[in-house]
Give the backbone structure.
Amino acid sequence: MPDTMTFTKKELRVVGTRPVRPDGVPKVTGLARFGADYSLPGMLWGRILRSPHAHARIRSIDTSKAQALRGVKAVMTSADLPEQKFEYVGPERVAVNFWHMTRSVMAREKVLFEGHPVAAVAATSKTIAEEALGLIEVDYEVLPHVIDVEDAMKPDAPLLFEDMITRGIEPAPDRPSNISKRIELKIGDVEAGFAAADEIVESSFKTAPVHQGYIEPQACLARFDTDGQAELWASSQGHFVIRALSARLLGMDIGNLRVYPAEIGGGFGGKNVPYVEPVALVLARKSGHPVKIVLSREEVFKGCGPAAGSIMTVKIGIKKDGRIVAAAGVFKFQAGAVPGSPVMNACMCAFSPYDIPNVRSVGYDVVSNRPKTAAYRAPGSPISAYAVESVIDMAAARISMDPLQFRLKNVAKPGTPTVWGPKHAHEGFAETIRALMQHPAYTTPLNKNQGRGVAAGYWFNNGGESSAAVHINEDGTVLVATGSSDLSGTRASLAMMAAETLGVEFDKVRPTVADTASIGYGHLSAGSRTTFATGIAVVEACKKVIGNLCARAAMIWDVNAEDVVWDGGCARYTGKKSGEFEPLSLKAIAVKKSVTGGPIVAEVSVNAGGVAPGFAAELCDVEVDPETGAVKVLRFVTAQDVGRAIHPSYVEGQLQGGAAQGIGWALNEEYIYDEAGRLTNAGFLDYRVPVASDLPRIETVLVEVPNPNHPFGVKGVGEANIVPSLAAVANAVSRAIGQRMTELPMSPPKILKAMNGGR
């Protein structure tokens, strides 16, 4: 068989087409099972008691009245979770500290935000469970709190952790603060770069925390046997990761916990870590009954991580011809109640689309009395891109240069160094810029009170650990099993790659997401890695199957296996007697499996490298009402280097979804707290995500620059599309009103104030 690396686009039969997704029917008919849809005999309902205070010391918790309530079978507090060692585990960019994680799941010494879990109950009905929560008596010592990042960084700010010494500073500070970590990345000589610049543009920016806006709240069902074996049905972005983290938090062996993947009603990074799963497992272990927990929408907003808020300052030095010679950024990110904001991502991605010889990025990870932040689609990069792309826009205007031409002049190319060390190795960015320049929207005239903004963005994309198994059934149909949660149609893309590799029709391949006891390890469906990394595992498993099929064909023909190749979905004999043997189809070989060696199965696990990043460029036209400050988005065009679009419809959907979320982030969405540190808009009525009437038709341009390190050229498409969106909208609004907007969201009152000279 020809290696799949040699496939050209013209040779592809399945990849690049638009078949109906295999999970479509159960979803539109309501038969698909999400986290809240699972039940077991004898099941109890779990509910979580949450702190009413933003910051308070827990003097005592009395659960006796709740335990005595008829129908209550178990009550838990943090005492039911073993203490964890204080250490950061894993690479710095994604390091985990289980000492902090266990305190996020259930408060110990203090509550650190309104909504922080304090205790939980399991009862025979939801009503009894809710009543039991009201019987738990918690004695709090209310403490001063701090919400915003700059306030949290002040020397006299209330401390969330009295012993937190900032990491990343030498010598280490001699007093604690809310600054968990300082990061500095640099290349070249930044001071000399600015000294050589003809123009210097600098501005500061602020963004608010925003929620991922997934429709399905966190939900799970847990069962715990007396022999220590447990099972969990959970809606998450990675059931293997949920298994590992939950087992660690409970002090279990990983092998004693089996996790079944439920369908997922949206995640966008917000369902990478456990919230309810360890709680349900503890309650199931204590009660001896299965326990289901389903969060309310208010609990999701108050207790589950939003994206970080930020304060940023960006400075760029340019030559008169438009060449950027120096850039510097300071990025201060809210981590929420425990460390771990994506500020390192922000520092790494901020200037990465551009070839700038002198760069310095400084980041601060700052705790405050909010829920611990969670990933949100290219975590960190949209925030820093908002600041950088705003200043890029200002710099282009300073020298009267077309904003896309300005970006094109400075694009990063293969060989361009990054601020964190490695050199760029892939094309794709310039192609997205040119795609926008050639789009008719870029030259369409605008009217009064209208503005056009453009922006660009970068995301690493990820590879990593994935597993896949391919089973050939005796009727010639194919089962493809993986351990990767399907967030965006990846079952279809993986099945398409399997069909293409095997040379069979797409409808002969049945993809499934297997549980943690039925397939090898698969990391999170996050970082735009699934189609790339799990796709490699699927293709490699298909190749092993093809080798097996060729060997069986040789056995049937009684010839040497070296003389058999796989081509067009058939085994073909290429030896001296080639005219004597008709090609054998996959089905013809499969039907004889019992006499040629038994089941035809292959499983492959990979740690996929060769990742190519995602580049995106976007255009936004807006109209601003001069009387109300309201913004109407008239047109939005998003161009992204997608590597190769396996299923173009789903790729287009990813681009449109990222743009829609970016529009909401820019114009409407924010967490709003009162003076007591309580969230005042914990619901979709008051927290305004964009709906259909708020959005234009989002036009997509799929730029395909295949990744040579993937059998089908895949790069990953789920995240780069949101990176430029915030800045594209902000640049459009700023041009429409003639004033630079430096704070998100750009709500009507803020825009009116800018238009009225600060009044």
Q: What stands out?
A: The two ends are 71 Å apart (CA to CA). Residues 1-6 have pLDDT under 50 and may be disordered. DSSP finds 20 helices and 26 strands in the chain. Residues 530-557 form the longest helix (28 residues).
